[in-house]
Amino acid sequence: MRAHIVTLGCKVNQYESAAMAESLEKLGYELGSKEDLDLIVLNTCAVTSKAGSKALQILRRLRRENPRAKIVSIGCLAQAEPDELIKYSDLVLGNFQKDTLASKLLSPNGTIDISVPKVPIALSSGTPKTYRTRAFHRIQDGCTQRCAFCIIPSLRGAEKSLAPDRVIADLKAYRDKGIKEIVLTGIHLGRWGWDHDPKGDLTKLLELIDKSLKPNESSFRVRLSSLELKEAQLILDSFNKYPWLARQLHIPLQSGSDKILKLMHRPYTSSLYLETVSSFRKKYKYMSLGTDVMVGFPGEKEEDFVSSLEFVKKSPINHLHIFPFSARYGTSAFNYPGKVPAKEIRKRAGAFKAVDSEKRLKFYTANLGRKELALVENSPEPKTLRQRVITGNYIQALLPEGSNEPSGELIKVKLIGIASYVEKDGQGFEKKDSHLQDTQESQPEAYFVEAKRC
Ligand code: SF4
Question: How far is ligand 1, taken at its centre, from the CA of residue 30, in Å?
Fold first, then answer.
């Protein structure tokens, strides 16, 4: 029997798909081929309306191309819009049914089960096989912060965290499998341990990892996925204390305008945000500080947008993820007045994109000449087809043409330059000679940091 899992959305979804893949293998399914499938599982995302329509589009295509296969739609969009998904699926299951997918497959076609357990169930753990060089490991799920634009709390429920000894056991298992980098992830990662008695937090977990695994940074490192501001503040000193902790943080800002932050129900002001990220930049000069910014939130006037843009420009953030606002049914912002026209949202997103490019280039340039421990990825960079590595401070760098470093290994590299590639009439990309001089002349298609082993 052949099965295939299509995964959309966040790192938590990636982890859950890996775990579901393992449960299907135990049932005797073969995974890996997309031909002649008996079972397809679509693990959906609903964070934006764009994510939702993309999932539906993929589902319709899967149905069309695989008339014989049993199709299971599962996860966040299944939880939010079951009646729409059942039109193209045999089964629709929610987030709380992922751990029992194997038994749910016996349900009659047409079944919708998005039930939420009355009594919170413990978060399952395990170290499912991953096809990546870095393992995404879910240690937390759920969120009750209820930001005005966010649908996630109603789809994933209240916070729940993996028990500390389970986290340690899983990290040991990954290490024993030869995995050199673990990305700890969650829906609200910074609230890991909040549901434990006694209450835990990330600082305690990092201390426990250090004591229990005694990681040596050249053979094993831990990376943290997105952290909310207040929880990030708690780990300011941790990156000096634990050399095995990758120097990268992603702290969502959403808006640099205090008026909009208040409307979003975000629990901080722009000045507290600036103070916090500046304290990280001051302490860790080359740390990667990324953020999420939303444009076009209802009520965002031109002056609010400008103050948000100016705020981000002057902040020590070095890369942005830009999200056009999309109204999600079931969120408080869904009925907010002051909708921003789509054309205006696109214009504002474009302005942030330009700032993002500038900041990324400035950060890359500041890192030239430095040495970093880098993880060798197992697939070449798609545009240039060159072997690539990921540094501790989250720079994706290209190794010299023809490199053949062992994938999944941590190697020392020196960041030696920035190469720009331009698209060659639809036939892939070719390297441009020298980058910096012609930035004014013609905007390069894509640029990459170059590295060599040292
Ligand atoms: S912190 Fe806010 S944005 Fe993040 S998952 Fe919770 S409600 Fe959503």
Answer: 36
First to last CA, the chain: 47
For residue 147, the CA-to-ligand 1 centroid distance in Å is: 6
Q: Which ligand 1 atom is nearest residue 151's CA?
A: 8
pTM above 0.90, yes or no: yes
- Detail the DSSP E strand segments found in 221-360: 221-224, 248-250, 288-295, 319-324
Look at residue 79 and give its three-state secondary structure.
Answer: helix
Q: Count Cα neighbours of 148 within 13 Å in the Cβ-side half-sphere.
A: 21
Query: Over the stretch 326-335, which tens digit does the pLDDT of each residue have?
Result: 999 999 999 9
> Does residue 222 lie in a domain region?
yes
Protein residue with its CA nearest to atom 4 in ligand 1:
188
Q: What gap in Å lies between CA 226 and CA 209, rounded to an integer?
A: 19
Beta carbon of 145 within 6 Å of any ligand 1 atom: yes
Kindly state whether residues 292 and 165 are assigned to the same domain: yes
Q: Looking at the domain assignment, is residue 246 inside a domain?
A: yes
Output the residue whose Cα is nearest ligand 1's atom 1. 145
| CATH (domain of 21) | 3.40.50.12160
User: Which CATH number goes with the domain that contains 340?
Assistant: 3.80.30.20
If asked whether residues 199 and 273 sit together in one domain, one would say yes
449 and 305 share one domain: no
Q: Which domain holds residue 294?
A: 134-361
**Residue 430 three-state SS:** strand
Count CB atoms within 10 A of the CB of residue 64.
9
Q: Which residues of the chain have pLDDT under 50?
A: none
pLDDT in tens, 392-416: 999 999 999 999 999 999 999 999 9
Counting the structural domains of the chain, the total is 3
Q: Tell me which residue of 110, 117, 159 sits closest to 138, measured CA to CA.
A: 159
